[in-house]
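Field: COMPLEX_INPUT
Field: COMPONENT_COUNT = two
Field: RESIDUE_TOTAL = 754
Field: MODE = joint
Values follow.
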Amino acid sequence: MIKAGILGGGQLGRMLLQEAANYPVITHVMENDADCPAAKLCHHFFKGDITRYEEVMQFGEGLDVLTIEIENVNVEALFDLEEKGVKIIPRPAALHTIKNKILQKEFYQKHEIPTAPFKILSDRNELNSHVDMLPAVHKLATGGYDGKGVQIIRKEEDIALGFDAPSVLEKMIPIQKEIAITVAVGQGGQTAVYPPVEMVFDPVLNLLDFQLCPASIPEKVLWKAEAMAISVARNLGSAGLFAVEMFVDGNENVWVNETAPRVHNSGHHTIEAHYSSQFDMLWRIMLNYPLGNTAYIMPSIMINILGAAGYSGEAQPEGLEEVLSIPNAFVHLYGKRETKPGRKMGHATVISNERQELIHQANRIRTTLSIKGSKAI
Amino acid sequence: MIKAGILGGGQLGRMLLQEAANYPVITHVMENDADCPAAKLCHHFFKGDITRYEEVMQFGEGLDVLTIEIENVNVEALFDLEEKGVKIIPRPAALHTIKNKILQKEFYQKHEIPTAPFKILSDRNELNSHVDMLPAVHKLATGGYDGKGVQIIRKEEDIALGFDAPSVLEKMIPIQKEIAITVAVGQGGQTAVYPPVEMVFDPVLNLLDFQLCPASIPEKVLWKAEAMAISVARNLGSAGLFAVEMFVDGNENVWVNETAPRVHNSGHHTIEAHYSSQFDMLWRIMLNYPLGNTAYIMPSIMINILGAAGYSGEAQPEGLEEVLSIPNAFVHLYGKRETKPGRKMGHATVISNERQELIHQANRIRTTLSIKGSKAI
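Field: COMPLEX_OUTPUT
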């Protein structure tokens, strides 16, 4: 049987392993924490630091195929493992491009994929030469993750907040809608495209944390966005799953924001709402089977379940009973013992043919379910 | 977190564990084979013999809740564990009744649940006193499993084939249709009923191995069958999942054949085709959450993938590529290393609103996918 490895053992790894059990594959997971969400669902767990060359080499040697569930891995080791014949998905060259925000922006530019105008900076001082770009988004070239390493610079006085390191300064796009499209690329180069998801903004609660699928966008925008997402995926020259995040502005222009070369938060709804989920799809790619069917079975909404503000320590879900009584809702808790404010502790998906029902139930879930902790902070 | 145990580590345990990862639960599995399908998907694996009192006691003590994925377990230990405060689902008393075909038949009789007329026999010789019952089905009281322990006695000369042990002799029902209904019973006694599945007989290949959902039966038969299934589940006086297999005869009479007090082969399609799968439902019952939604998202067909005749040894799937190219098909392989003729190696489910599409794709899967082995036998 094929031996497949995953670098990283968080919830994405966990959900990959839930699907792996449908296929003839022996699973290996590497993560520094033996108590991580994916540790108990794999054939072989390897405790190690995915950012260290020697440890990744040790883990990867002897595997047939290897993937990532987080970008922050040792790419040098992946290049060398690829050299030794391990199939790496995504290819280290693609990951190398994406991991560095400077290279990623240059990649979009080179391939004429619309993206916000930008400048490359080597230190904070250079921000002073680009006051004409403000308001802008300042992004660290490397090391940013999950909202970290990103700083809004609205006006000259904000420059002190900027990063004193290699970075990208992006002109702020007047966003009307945020969407994401996942593209699957098989080992033979064949592609399959998931319908776009839309980040729904709640005007009452002023929160942006629903993902609705399919996105409600004009056909012209859909075509543009699909073409751009496919262009990103194809030009990266690698098999894998690519979640392409995009902005739509008021003039129906579409701009690529960022790409994740892996299973991604924006694809969680595919578990129940699509014929082939993003997790199923990545196994098909890794095991060199035909790509799955990206169509949706029913429209869906996905809501992240985050650690509640004001709590840390042992996670204590509240309101789970009520949420589990919603007839068309699916709950996934990630098995993380410790909560902290904003930590991704799970997600829920609702499927329905009625958009209003989706939004109603998602709001109900958000106001009902909370992950508190054993300590008030 | 709740500590939950499963006695048995086959494919049913495996699929239970795939769902367990959505819930806050620590999973323990007991099975004699450390290489069994469920061994690598649980938090704690306990190698032991589920039919031995001491080993089951050792495994069960300290757990909060315990279930089975096969009837052939040590029930005495379950009675004693229940006494010690471990929640056993299904209750040992219900399992005790079902495990013994004599007690099971007497249970149906006592509760006036229609079942084929029968006689209780203590040895083979007694068959001679019931020649008037022939053609009949002769079933061992205990120890039968998966078609073993069942013998058709058509005429007097077949009596020599009968079992020389405590057994049940059942009059043969002129079966027009075989159906099954799964009933979920929560810890508070609340019930939820899945739509009936129908075993589809293929007139060309003379094989009975599709399960179609929902069954195509007249409303009157549906009502009767549902009422009977609920009556079986309620009268067993236990929380749990109960798969009630029934016959429908040419006069629209419905007869209970057998009941399985656990997740069951007849519920595999619920993974993709229903809001709450049988595996999800059993976790809801064990963890004392609201029952799930038994409704189907789309009609479905399920086909067992069996070890091909003429092969044993290391399993080698053939035709998987083609089956994975069917847009609305889902494949589950159980990770069993060794195949043998007729062994359950996996299953596939197709979902579609068109009954003809379901049957077409199921036939395609059956003629395409086969599990051969490293040895010809």
